[in-house]
Write a structure and sequence with these properties.
The longest helix has 17 residues. By secondary structure, the protein is mainly β. The chain has one domain. 12% of the residues lie in helices and 43% in strands.
Amino acid sequence: MKLQLKRRFFNSEYTIGTLSVNGVYFCDTLEDANRDKNRDGDLCDQGEEKIYGKTCIPFGTYEVIVNRSPKMNRDLPRLVDVPGFSGVLIHRGNTSADTAGCILVGENKAVGKVLFSTAYEIKLVKICKAAINVGEKITIEII
């Protein structure tokens, strides 16, 4: 299964994107601010700096698994081997205050927010688990 997150609006505090599943629109996303200015997947370039809890993950393609988050106490999609980050999840939340490098899912119906995120998280977890149960590998491409 292929997830694709297309980042489309960059603000100094947050990033808004669109998430698709196998090429079909699924929902909007909200992440921390983008600091990978040249979009090369490397936050070590001149003028780029990771700020803990305020930086979205680098552009690139990552494997996704589903496992239990000890912090959230529920099964969530987890991105594997993100350079310079650990514990990157896709989950519910409404503003950049609700993420520390994670991807929030919902509807971007208010400036700087995603709404109805719980329903989208539940649906995405169900889709991911179904893919895993039939032996599909899940990846997410962030462009």
